[in-house]
Amino acid sequence: MKISKAEFRCSSERISQVPKDGLRDIAFIGRSNVGKSSLINMLTGRPGLAKVSGTPGKTRLINHFRIDNAWYLVDLPGYGYARTSKTVRNGFSTLITDYVLRCGKMHFLFVLADIRLEPQRIDLRFIDMLGEHGVPFGIVFTKADKLSKTQCEKSVERYRKRLSETWEELPPMFVSSSERGTGREEILDFIGECL
Ligand code: GDP
């Protein structure tokens, strides 16, 4: 799938504010600093679309970007930073859980994980929650340029192994690098098939 037009549509701090015009949402989430903004910019080919920052946990809103007037790319708030009054006990804000589990707008969710790290507790907890609720999701490994091809394969295998301790069916997995454009076609084609 190719993207010709990507435009910012709105930021929502409440579920009631997300667009309800019938276009499908394809969402992205991950721990702060995982490389989510960079991935969104890389996928859309628009370097400034989502902000890239070195300050973790800054964006706490849901951002909708309209793609080719056909679907929404949704930038969800990062999780895993210090707990706030709006953060529920499981470590995810009510905004995140309301959107992901309850609002019914999300068509598919990409959970991002830094390929250099072992499966992180908070990511596994989030993935388990998705699995328990039957939410359709996949995993995108970020920053693949930081490892060799063999190391990347080992990392993905380690993740597979860890997830298969709990789950019989594993989610689709993608290896990406925003620096090099790795994974772009594969992820976009997958989205194309989802829509
Ligand atoms: P976010 O907080 O998840 O939106 O993460 P950002 O996109 O702001 O990226 C966090 C940091 O990781 C920034 O310094 C980026 O330049 C860096 N980064 C993101 N993606 C990549 C990547 O694919 N390769 C490398 N080497 N660095 C990346």
From TrEMBL:
InterPro entries: G_ENGB_dom (IPR030393), GTP-bd (IPR006073), GTP-bd_ribosome_bio_YsxC (IPR019987), P-loop_NTPase (IPR027417). Pfam families: MMR_HSR1. The keyword Nucleotide-binding applies. GO terms for biological process: division septum assembly. Keywords: Cell cycle, Cell division, GTP-binding, Magnesium, Metal-binding, Nucleotide-binding, Septation. GO terms for molecular function: GTP binding; metal ion binding. Residues 22-195 form the EngB-type G domain. Its cofactor is Mg(2+). Signal peptide: none annotated. HAMAP family: GTPase_EngB. Necessary for normal cell division and for the maintenance of normal septation. Belongs to the TRAFAC class TrmE-Era-EngA-EngB-Septin-like GTPase superfamily. EngB GTPase family. This is Probable GTP-binding protein EngB. The lineage of its organism: Bacteria, Pseudomonadati, Bacteroidota, Bacteroidia, Bacteroidales.
